[in-house]
């Protein structure tokens, strides 16, 4: 039986990873792909869940067994590689935080009619307040759990109101009429890409969950995190499917807002504002926390004052949002670069899994190594293709 303290650590890691995934981009991509693929998008979600679990279990297991964060593992394999990985994660996290703050501002605008920029600043202040609190770790865990549960229940209400064709969704999840490789890679990247998968792995380390003896806890945490994020995606998918099946058009400029409004009227639109704000501010927190866990290795003072460095990270993100205004182009470019982080990190973990100097006598299961290698190769190919399209 798992210790009570381990259950708490597991839930903290699972929710942090899940809410890091459920951001403005997550909501937009799910609604948009549902409008394009209809019920067949259910198959994409199912396939992505399998891929996400394999990728996440590979990464979480090696981080836990080695007892060291991902960048230190990379540095042990090749001196300097960890610093490069950490820089990519931190810069990507900051760029996406610009979009997260914009999403938070949009959510408050829908709720209260507040100017988007002012809403972004208010949200940044709230996030900073959490990290300045003397019990910041507990405050962060409580905040993300409460908002995570709230989002799921609100999404459940909208899914119910949209009256989705559940039988068709179930049938097409097994036997799709359409398939989009781009949609598959996009939502995989949106769930375990960039800094996201490391959020929970590094949180487990902070909670003292490490070593081979804790692998059952690590596995449960990895699967639970994907499960939480997937529940949210499935609920949004069937809500959007209900809207599309009823003949309503989803606005490509703001797909999730259309889903909530068509399904729930003005009340639904206000719920969209609340869900958007909750998704965005929790992603701000998850991104800031995880990015700083990567750059702690740069200098001992960063490790000693990590809370204040995290506050600075959020402040810089907010200032950059003020200068950039519309973060869309920034997110597109950095998104392409971010696409390389998952295959790079996964490749590092797969190699590290067979280095006795890192994992001791531990042996990674063959099926995890094989499936992880296939995923790393596919994601590398798609990352190159995306970057090539941007450059040309």
UniProtKB/TrEMBL annotation:
Biological process, per Gene Ontology: iron ion transmembrane transport
Compartments it resides in: Membrane
Membrane protein topology class: Multi-pass membrane protein
Transmembrane stretches, start-end: 37-59, 80-98, 110-133, 142-160, 180-201, 222-250, 270-295, 307-324, 330-353, 365-384
Keywords: Membrane, Transmembrane, Transmembrane helix
Metal-binding is among the record's keywords: no
Keyword Transmembrane: yes
MF (Gene Ontology): cadmium ion transmembrane transporter activity; manganese ion transmembrane transporter activity
Signal sequence annotation: none
Superkingdom of source: Bacteria
One GO cellular component, as annotated: plasma membrane
Matching InterPro entries: NRAMP_fam (IPR001046)
Protein name: Divalent metal cation transporter
């Amino acid at each position: 039986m798992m210790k009570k303290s381990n259950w708490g650590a597991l839930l903290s890691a699972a929710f942090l990873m899940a809410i890091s995934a459920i951001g403005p981009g997550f909501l937009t991509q799910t609604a948009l792909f549902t409008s394009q693929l209809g019920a067949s998008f259910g198959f994409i979600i199912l396939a992505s869940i399998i891929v996400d679990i394999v990728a996440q279990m590979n990464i979480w297991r090696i981080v836990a067994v080695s007892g060291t964060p991902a960048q230190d593992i990379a540095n042990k394999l090749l001196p300097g590689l960890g610093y490069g990985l950490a820089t990519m994660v931190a810069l990507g996290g900051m760029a996406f935080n610009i979009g997260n703050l914009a999403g938070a501002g949009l959510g408050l605008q829908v709720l209260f009619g507040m100017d988007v920029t002012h809403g972004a600043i208010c949200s940044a202040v709230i996030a900073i307040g959490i990290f300045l609190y003397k019990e910041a770790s507990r405050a962060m865990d409580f905040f993300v759990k409460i908002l995570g549960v709230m989002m799921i229940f609100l999404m459940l209400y909208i899914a119910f109101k949209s009256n989705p064709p559940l039988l068709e969704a179930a049938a097409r999840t097994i036997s799709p009429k359409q398939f989009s490789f781009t949609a598959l890679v996009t939502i995989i990247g949106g769930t375990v890409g960039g800094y996201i998968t490391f959020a929970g792995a590094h949180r487990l380390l902070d909670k003292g969950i490490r070593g081979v003896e804790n692998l059952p806890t690590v596995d449960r945490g990895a699967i639970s995190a994907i499960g939480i994020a997937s529940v949210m995606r499935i609920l949004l998918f069937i809500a959007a499917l209900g809207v599309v099946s009823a003949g309503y058009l989803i606005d490509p400029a703001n797909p999730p807002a259309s889903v909530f409004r068509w399904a729930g009227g003005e009340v639904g639109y206000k719920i969209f504002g609340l869900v958007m704000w909750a998704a965005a501010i929790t992603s701000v927190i998850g991104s800031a926390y995880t990015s700083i866990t990567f750059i702690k290795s740069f200098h001992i003072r960063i490790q000693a004052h990590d809370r204040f460095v995290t506050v600075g990270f959020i402040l810089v993100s907010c200032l950059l949002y003020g200068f950039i205004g519309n973060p869309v182009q920034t997110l597109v470019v950095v998104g392409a670069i971010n696409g390389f982080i998952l295959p790079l990190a996964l490749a590092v973990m797969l190699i590290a899994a067979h280095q006795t100097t890192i994992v001791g006598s531990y042996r990674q299961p063959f099926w995890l190594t094989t499936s992880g290698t296939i995923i790393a190769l596919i994601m590398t190919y798609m990352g190159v293709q995306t970057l090539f399209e941007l450059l040309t």
